[in-house]
Amino acid sequence: MNDDPEKQRILIVDDEPDNIRILAEALADDYELFGATNGNEAIECASGRERPDLILLDIIMPDMNGYEILKALKAGTNTRDIPVIFITVMGRELNELRGFEMGAVDYVMKPFSPAIVRERVRTHLELKYYRDYLEDIVHKRTDELVLSNRRLRKEILQRKEIKAHLEDLVHERTRENLESLLNSLDDFLFVLNREGYIAFATPVAEKRLGYSQEELRRKRMLDLYPPDTRTKVSDALARVSPGEKGACDVPLLAKDGTRIPVESLFKRGDWDKNEAIFAFIREISGQTRGPFSREKE
């Protein structure tokens, strides 16, 4: 037997040592050869560290025949892809279809023709080489695609995080700019959350009503109107919907109990990424009525 590690390995399985010798003489110059004389030995050799690249397997053997050995090989994770060429005696009844259906790749007949044996072995080893080469390319490409997909998912996630961060920064800056603009208004302005509580009030509203921002945020908008007028204010708030406004000319009630004549206009909008109602309130003097009053007419 030749122990050249660069040569492809062939396992010859036959219960007759003379048959193994004859096949070895035909193949020894080109391949590294192993022999087994029974099924258990054949399966052990095929499953070892140095698995064969091809198996020449006799069909007719006493303890375990070639079909049974082939079935066991095809059931093994490490041996299922090894090509198997069946050996049989010319003239014996042969079920070729059964062998091919079980996974054999070819047959060689006894008595052996060395040239035919070499040619069939060479052909199927070449097929195995190209098959393994293609499978290796597929596995590498698959691994590359998996890695690429992981990188892409990571990049998408990072971009989403960056986008969300930028949106938060823009939102925060927009809100800061909006609050700065609102704080410069001479009129009262309140932002109400869905429950009707005050989320924001302009400084002029704090100053004129006598409440701090913290105190106002603990109040509902209705709390800033005299009790006997709150039904009218509730009706005006109830009319607020997308595209619709509500208005009333009910006075506000300052912290010290003073009634401040005002016109109120309520509109729906967004505040801090949430639905809100904006209350635009203009102080009036005497019987003067401003544009807010005309909004409710």
Description:
The protein has 297 residues and is an alpha/beta fold. The protein has two domains: 9-137, 3-Layer(aba) Sandwich (Rossmann fold), CATH 3.40.50; 185-295, PAS domain (Beta-Lactamase). 44% of the residues lie in helices and 21% in strands. The protein has nine helices and twelve strands. The strands form three sheets. Strands 2-1-3-4-5 form a five-stranded parallel β-sheet, sandwiched between helices. Strands 7-6-12-11-8 form a five-stranded antiparallel β-sheet, sandwiched between helices. Helix 1 (17-27) crosses helix 5 and helix 2 (39-46) runs parallel beside helix 3. The chain is rod-shaped and about 125 Å long. The N and C termini lie far apart (109 Å). Residues 287-291 and 293-297 have low confidence and may be disordered.
Structural class: alpha/beta
Biggest β-sheet strands, sense, barrel: 5 strands, parallel
Mean pLDDT: 84
Report the order of strands and helices.
EHEHEHEHEHEEHHHEEEEEH
CATH class of the largest domain: Alpha Beta
- Helix content bin: 40-55%
> Could you list the spans in which at least 5 consecutive residues all have pLDDT below 50?
287-291, 293-297
Q: CATH H-level name of the largest domain... which superfamily?
A: Response regulator
Query: What name does the CATH topology of the largest domain carry?
Result: Rossmann fold
Tally of individual helices: 9
Radius of gyration: 45 Å
Approximate shape: rod-shaped
Q: Count the domains.
A: 2
CATH architecture of the largest domain: 3-Layer(aba) Sandwich
First and last CA, distance: 109 Å
Strand content is 15-25%
Taking strands numbered 1, 2, ... along the chain, how are they ordered across the largest sheet?
A: 2-1-3-4-5
Count of DSSP E strands? Answer: 12
